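Morning!

This is the sequence you dropped in the shared folder:
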Amino acid sequence: MTPTTTRRTRTWPFHLAALALLTAGLLVPHALLVAAGLLLAGSVALRPRAGR
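The structure's back. C-alpha cells below.
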C-alpha cells in the first residue's frame, strides 16, 4: 500500500486570518472576535479535501 499525503495546501492564509481575529479579540477584549477566530481555524482544519 502506498502512503497518502495528508498535507493541505493554501490553508495558511486562513490560519493567518484566524490568528489575526484571535489576537484582535484578546487585545480588545471582545469575545465574538475570539469565537470567530476559533471557528475559522476549526473550519479550515476540518475542511474536506478538494481531491476527494
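Headline: The mean pLDDT is 82.

More detail when I'm at my desk.
O.
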